[in-house]
Amino acid sequence: MAKRSAPEVNAGSMADIAFLLLIFFLVTTTIPKDSGINRKLPPIEENDEDVIIKQKNIFTVLINGKDQLLVEDELMELADLRAAAIEFLDNGGDGSCDYCNGKKDAASSDNPDKAIISLKNERETSYKTYISVQNELVAAYNELRNRRALLIGARKGFPEMDFVKMEKNFKDAKFIGNKDKLKEVIDQIRNEYPEKLSEVYTK
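Now predict its structure.
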């Protein structure tokens, strides 16, 4: 009796199917894109002279490996950080800042131009806590700038316009106001409250 031949499976179209599946997954799969922190770096200043910074003009913020906040070597809650930073920046200790509303404590910062915030973190610090702390520090600058903008903006023809809105209007092509004058106000506020935030990584 003759042996029956085993039926063959036609695998000729398998390559086509595999190719179509490959194309399908390539088209439908979304690859997450890592996004960093949007920061504008200050311009490089060519200055060979050593700048002496007084310790009282440095506001030290440290985030340890347990996500605890140490401000000037003392534990502090995140909710209190912004107010503490504003008090430091707006102190006006040397009396040269006529627009500062601080306590004018001689033991704290001389004026906003000399005040520096030093943010340090350890290797074990979580990314979430680091960003939260950084946001509070930037918010301290914005709050002071907004306060100043509302005061001088009314005199310059920009009433009820805080600093954030000024920057937004300046970038808006549909803004019908005087952009040259608006830029002068923005630059003045930036010079009065310059953002000097130093970020240091500690091992």
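Helices lie at 14-28, 78-89, 127-155, 163-171, 179-192.
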